[in-house]
Design goal:
Layout lengths: L5 H19 L7 H11 L6 E5 L5 H8 L3 E6 L2 H14 L6 E5 L15 E3 L1
Parallel strand pairs: 1-2, 1-4, 2-3
Length: 121
């Protein structure tokens, strides 16, 4: 990474870290009809492997896992991953159903990133 990008990258990570909990707590994320439409558009099936890139606080990832998908969520910050883990706990999503990774550039060789049936963002 070039030195001129580091301040920008740091600022973005800081912003995402600060906004993780407020973003996760937005009331709009509890809107059931939107989630029904999202799940229908994904046409997810049981045991489908899903990679949720920029999963944030796990809103979509947890719902996909709840209906039977095997989901890997990737987020930029540990604060977003923590919110995703908390959401999974609240929703009763089993650990085997979701894998959470931070900063994907260092994880491309991870077995969790093996071929997937569905990619979402």
């Amino acid at each position: 990474m070039s030195a001129c990008r580091r301040p920008h990258d740091t600022r973005i990570v800081d912003q995402f870290t600060r906004s993780a909990k407020p973003f996760a707590d937005l009331a709009i994320h509890a809107e059931a009809e939107s989630m029904v439409q999202t799940l229908a558009a994904c046409a997810v099936t049981r045991d489908m492997k899903v990679l949720d890139v920029a999963c944030g606080p796990g809103i979509i990832a947890c719902e996909l896992a709840r209906v039977g998908a095997k989901v890997t969520g990737i987020a930029l910050t540990s604060a977003m991953i923590e919110q995703a883990r908390l959401r999974a706990d609240r929703k009763g999503v089993k650990v085997e159903a979701c894998a959470w990774l931070m900063r994907p550039s260092i994880f491309w060789d991870s077995p969790a990133l093996s071929p997937h049936d569905l990619f979402c963002h």
